[in-house]
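User: Can you predict the 3D structure for this chain?
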Amino acid sequence: MSRPLVVACGALVAELRAVLAADGLTDAVDVRYLPAPLHNRPERIVPALRELLAKELAGDPDRPVLVGYADCGTGGGLDALLAELPNLHRLPGDHCYEFFAGSDRFHAMHDDEPGTFYLTDFLAKHFDALVWGALGLDRHPELLPMYFGNYTRVVLFSQSDDPAVVAAGRAGADRLGLAFEHHHVGLANFERAVTVELRRVA
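Assistant: Here is the predicted structure, written as structure tokens:
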């Protein structure tokens, strides 16, 4: 059988490498990453996946694949792709915040305050490029109330213990004029999701 292929979001590089190394899977799978900015353009995720998979599965269409995305704003488009290719599986949940924090914890927090803007380590560290700049707030700060007027807080679900990540998340919340909360969630939920799905495809 062919080695499993993992095709993941570029925003998960550090976390996925850590999980694969911890479970002794680094040399057992092949990994490809799609550009992290697709995080902001979910309508482009499925076309990008199709293009990459067409190359990677050429000559071996039954190769097992783990797609390192949740739904991630594709509105069911990713699941429709998976239905076409039954050897594909994806990570559980609607987005990375859910599989990092765990479904129960995420939904409880979201139900408590729907007006929450979430960050991961990657998004906190790249706030200027992936949030401030991507939304054009560097050029048009007057748009801030339009984008974030209905938000009340920023929640950072951190994977690492790096104080610089927390500082970056707090700075991002300050720029948005929102309250800041930090919840260290680590990698346990993500590791569980990855290893469970890899066992399904392997």
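The longest strand covers residues 153-158. The chain is about 45% helix and 15% strand.
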